[in-house]
Design goal:
The protein contains six helices and 13 strands. The chain has helices spanning about 70-80, 130-140, 140-150, 170-185, 210-220, 230-240; strands at about 25-30, 30-35, 40, 45, 55-60, 90-95, 100-105, 155, 160-165, 225, 245-250, 270-275, 295-300. The strands form four sheets. Strands 1-4-5-6-7 form a five-stranded mixed beta sheet, with helices on both faces. The protein has a four-stranded mixed beta sheet with strand order 10-11-13-12, with helices on both faces. Strands 2-3 form a two-stranded antiparallel ribbon.
Length: about 300
Amino acid sequence: PRDGETRGDRVSIVDWSDTARNDWLALNQFSVLGPKLTRRPYVVLFINGLPVVVVVELKNPGDENADLWTAFNQLQAYKEDIPDLFHSKALLVISDGIEARVGSLTADPVRYTAWRTIDGASVDPLGAMKELETLVHGLFRRERLLNYLRHFILVQDDGPLVKKVAGYHQLHAVRAVVESMLVASSPKADAYRRGKGGAVSHTQGPGKSIEITCLAAELLRETPVQADTRPRLRELLSHIPSRGIVSTTIQKFTPGEDEDSFPVLSERHNIAVICDKADRSQYGFQASLDGKAMAVAISLDLRAPV
């Protein structure tokens, strides 16, 4: 209190932009006292004193009974025995020393996946027998890990709390799209690249909706404004702020019944339109709309860091 008034300020737990200003620590056999038992996870990674990164449970690859799923079951026991350790946990890793999988706090076994790239271009660059090394080099470099923790972990709270984490293909797809979009929306872009932010094509089931959510978070951490009618969409796009997100369905972009062509919705050059579930049936000469495709218009402020 000061002058009879309680005052406060915001303190950032993590410096997201400067890795050197954070305290990094990895501890082997870190002892945690639970309500009944003391457990020692194999490796715990800390940022600024908080166990927010991963718990790694490594098993002996020479033991035929110690495989990935033995490690998974061990982690479930840890959640029961030392729950305090998992309150701020973002990622869990299971490995037998050769194979390795990464998942979220609430992931079931099928959601634990391999991390198969380091640079986003080469798959299994160290060989199929070095999954753990690929995971460490591909995800746990400090700058990349901070970016992942900030933009690539989602919490679904419309029912039982579920934490979802992006896979390696989603991380690198988003990073490539962000780079492409910034170039395309820049006034300095050449005629070939101006306005052409690129597209990502996936087969069924790779997590396109998670990817588009992470993309929006990577570009702007803003609360979306819903445009539920065509006039409302046009109103929002004509007055969209320097940093803002408008969410709507793709058919809201179609011309009205009294219009013969698409009108200009905004003269701004740095509005990006991102479509989820816009498949082959929704473009070309045989295009149709099924009402499920979602479009997000994002205004990029090129003066601000992304």
